Amino acid sequence: HDMEVGQVLLTRSDFDDRARFLNIRNCVLHLHSLGCVPIINENDAVAVDEIRFGDNDLLAALICNALKADALLLLTVVDGLLDTDGKVIDMVEDTMAALALARRDKTKMGSGGIMTKLEAARLVTEAGEVAVIANGRLTNVLGRLLSGQAKLGTVFVPAGRKLDSRQRWIGLTARPSGTVSIDQGAVTAIC
């Protein structure tokens, strides 16, 4: 397609540190300014089980929030989130409630299944952006989704407020860490 690309390899811990989180955003935005399409993936060479994403759905949601992107489009082999009768749910306003509909199975090639897609949708909609799960095997699915010409997949409605970059990092991206130490006087006062 005569397009320039730039590979960006990340680990989960890259998102936990504020400076590295901002560097990810700045790197991707700079690639965009150069006309490059960033190809983002987990850095499997240095990732260990404790800091793995486990699938690309979480990575996509974290990147979406870092960039304050307008939408997260997750393409899969099914037409969207299915109800108990196997029919596509057009719109979801409560992502947490949608978890009850999630099937636990995955395709042979997949690693996350619908559960990780719902978690990714939750991270993005809580930040105030829209998420969509659609069938990536449909002809021109991205063009059709972006133009809004057809009702495709399941649309997850964003929260009523948009979080700024810092709020996205603190509330939805960085994992809690650290310890609390109390001295004997505090122990006595508490007990």
Q: Describe it for me?
A:
There is one protein chain. It is built from 7 helices and 6 strands. The protein is of the alpha/beta class and 191 residues long. The strands form 2 sheets. The protein has a 4-stranded mixed sheet. A two-stranded parallel sheet has the order 1-2. Helix 2 (56-67) packs parallel to helix 4 and helix 2 (56-67) packs antiparallel against helix 6 (165-173). The mean pLDDT is 86.
Please give the alpha-carbon distance between the first and last residues. Answer: 68 Å
Number of helices in the DSSP assignment: 7
- Percent of residues in beta strands: 15-25%
Can you count the beta strands? Answer: 6
Unreliable spans = none
What does the overall shape look like? globular
Round the Cα radius of gyration to an integer and report it: 19 Å
Can you write the helix and strand succession as a string?
EHEHEEHHEHEHH
Largest sheet: 4 strands, mixed
Percentage of residues assigned to helices: 25-40%
SS-derived structural category: alpha/beta
**Average pLDDT, to the nearest integer?**
86
Spatial ordering of strands, largest sheet: 3-5-6-4
Topology:
Blueprint: E1 4-10, H1 18-33, E2 36-42, H2 56-67, E3 71-76, E4 91-92, H3 95-98, H4 113-126, E5 130-135, H5 141-147, E6 154-156, H6 165-173, H7 184-190
Parallel strand pairs: 1-2, 3-5, 4-6
Antiparallel strand pairs: 5-6
Helix pairs in contact: 2-4, 2-6
